[in-house]
Design brief:
417 residues; alpha+beta; Lysozyme; five-stranded antiparallel beta sheet; 19 helices; 50% helix; 7% strand; binds calcium ion
Length: 417
């Protein structure tokens, strides 16, 4: 088992969940991620794989991929058993919204995003002008999708896709994505050897699947290639194009945090939109005390139920939702965009006495576990099965219920003792 597979990570799992959602693989819940992923044992599939690859070669050429690209892609093609293990792995428990948000919208991601706003200011201004999508939202999406390009991954996409097309679930879908990937190579946009990603399929700064890429990627820096792996302007403009096609309305906010009266019994849900005047009549107010907007259609979401923060969300929130089909995901981008704009944290706390941890706090937790001899791995902030086991042991020693979850309470207990 590779080191990456042993460790897993919330980042990787968020990626897997996202892919699963994009591909409609049936990961049901709104907020899912693994602290620890149970990875199934590898299986040797060499002989059937070779036969399958022969079939793929023929089908790829029939599907219009040029024979020289097919030859280059399938020469020395071997089975990548890691992708099947990742596909089979199931999250052990659902990640609470406050864990998800603490991980995705932490101080480091806000600080990095502000730097990126400066570094990419010129491109962002041009992209904003061309597509009408707010630069803060684009940088937030970039930060959540790939940690501003840091989440590179070492899966060779054609190999990973061929492995899934031969052995995985949803083989037909991955076969189609494989052919799209090869057509991207044939178009000269991405070099075969550069075609790597964090898992099977999505790639580049803004993590498009090959089919999405072929539909929506753009050559914004006009060097003749649509390159969302190496060109930040191409990647950000491609994301802007995606949002524009998903109904993004220039100049409109994604929404805002609200206060809901305790007695509220009206409609809830992103898609149950109503005029702002209707929400005002129902007693909904902005959490920051500012006046409600004069017009617009909004839906009320309460990601943690009645006790937690509530939001009125616009059509632009739906555009963010369409990128990944998860409200928690859309909220992470929405909130990160507001933080990049200089706005503060949510006014209402999440309904928990054991809040989630930032990436820096996760590392600190691992350092404390190492110091106690409970964890033998690296303090890398990745919450894999080894870290989860160490947390459970620390919880037991402290007389707490063993959960394996990295939360503020166990961090405090370890830091103080
Ligand atoms: Ca380009």
């Amino acid at each position: 088992m590779s080191c990456a597979a042993k460790q897993g990570s919330v980042a990787l799992t968020v990626t897997i969940v996202r892919l699963s959602r994009r591909l409609r693989l049936g990961v049901g819940a709104l907020i899912i991620a693994a602290l620890a992923m149970g990875l199934a044992a590898p299986s040797a599939k060499a002989a059937p794989f070779e036969t399958c690859v022969k079939g793929l070669r023929t089908s790829a050429i029939k599907a219009g991929v040029s024979p020289d690209i097919v030859e280059a892609a399938f020469r020395d093609m071997t089975f990548d058993e890691r992708v099947l293990r990742f596909q089979r792995s199931q999250p052990e428990y659902r990640l609470a919204i406050w864990d998800y948000m603490a991980f995705l919208v932490d101080e480091a991601r806000i600080a990095d995003g502000r730097k990126m706003l400066e570094i990419e200011a010129k491109s962002l201004a041009a992209i904003e002008k061309a597509y009408g999508v707010d630069k803060y939202v684009l940088v937030a999406l970039w930060g959540v999708e790939s940690d501003y390009g840091r989440l590179e991954g070492d899966f060779h996409l054609p190999r990973a896709l061929a492995s899934l097309a031969c052995e995985g679930k949803r083989a037909a879908l991955f076969k189609a994505e494989l052919f799209h990937a090869l057509k991207i190579v044939a178009a000269g946009d991405v070099k075969l050897q550069d075609f790597t990603g964090p898992w099977a399929g999505a790639f580049g700064h803004t993590q498009f699947m090959p089919s999405t890429y072929r539909r929506l990627a753009v050559d914004f820096d006009r060097d003749g290639r649509k390159d969302t792996i190496n060109s930040i302007p191409d990647a950000l403009a491609s994301a802007a194009n995606y949002l524009k096609r998903s109904g993004w309305r220039p100049g409109q906010a994604w929404g805002f945090e609200v206060k809901v009266p305790a007695s509220y019994k009206g409609p809830t849900g992103r898609t149950r939109k109503a005029a702002i005047s209707a929400w005002a009549k129902r007693g909904i107010r902005r959490a920051d005390g500012a006046a409600l907007p004069k017009a617009g259609s909004y839906g009320l979401i309460r990601p943690a139920g009645r006790g937690g923060p509530a939001f009125l969300v616009s059509r632009n929130f739906d555009a963010l939702y369409s990128y990944n089909a998860a409200e928690s995901y859309a909220l992470a981008i929405a909130h990160l965009s507001d933080r990049l704009r200089g706005k503060g944290a949510f006014r209402t706390a999440w309904p928990t006495d054991d809040p989630g941890l930032s990436r820096a706090e996760r590392k600190r937790l691992q350092e404390l576990l190492i110091a106690r001899g409970l964890y033998k791995g690296e303090a890398d902030g990745r919450m894999g099965p080894l870290t989860a086991a160490a947390i459970r042991e620390a919880e037991k020693q402290a007389g707490m219920k063993p959960t394996g979850r990295p939360g503020a309470r166990i961090l405090r207990v370890l830091a103080e003792n």
